[in-house]
Amino acid sequence: MSVTVKWGRERLAFALPQPDTPLAAIRRSLAEYTGLAAFRLIHGGAVLADDAATLRQCRIAEGSVIVLLPTAAAPAAPVVSDRPLQPLGLATEESAVLAAIHTELASVRSSLAPDLNDLLARAQDAPSDKREYLRLGELLLQSLLRLDGIAPERDWHTARKARKDAVKEVQALLDCLDDTIAARKAAGLH
């Protein structure tokens, strides 16, 4: 079961254990990964306060989004672990790594690719805002870095191929943006 945890600007994709797993196990895993001692978890508009409640009782299922909000007792700027998220030791499973890759690529396809296509369509006609080019370039680069942070095991051929294909797809979008910027500069439009 793959879910997304929103933490500020971060989007963490990971696999969850069985539906009868208590929320406390998820909270411990996120605390270890983020370095936060105190935070709230919100799902479906409700604060998840009962750590004894199971994932089923919290209605956390495939594709759920959980928001992680640090509380006042939490450090202002927690240091994110440099290792991939491994809740409950399950990220060692190839399916969890595949879920993280697919989540990142789906995010690029749903939010960045349409913005890029719109920007490129407008680029032919009139001067455009340089900030939009920079924003998209930065977001695509961040996506590449997140994909680079996903490290499938050597013998996980499916996950390694999925990561390689995802990197190629995001890099192609970034290359297209860079080519458009170069062409606009050459034409004196940028």
UniProtKB/TrEMBL annotation:
Query: Which ranges carry the BAG domain?
Result: 128-181
The organism sits in which domain of life? Eukaryota
List the keywords (alphabetical).
Chaperone
Q: Which GO terms describe its molecular function?
A: adenyl-nucleotide exchange factor activity; protein-folding chaperone binding
Q: Name one Pfam family in it.
A: BAG
GO BP terms: namely: protein stabilization
Task: Identify the InterPro entries for this entry.
Answer: BAG_chaperone_regulator, BAG_dom_sf, BAG_domain, Ubiquitin-like_dom, Ubiquitin-like_domsf
- Check the record and name the SUPFAM superfamilies matching this protein: BAG domain (SSF63491), Ubiquitin-like (SSF54236)
The GO cellular component terms are:
cytosol; membrane; nucleus
Query: Record keywords: Nucleotide-binding included?
Result: no
Its name, as the record gives it, is BAG domain-containing protein
The organism named in the record is Coprinellus micaceus (Glistening ink-cap mushroom)
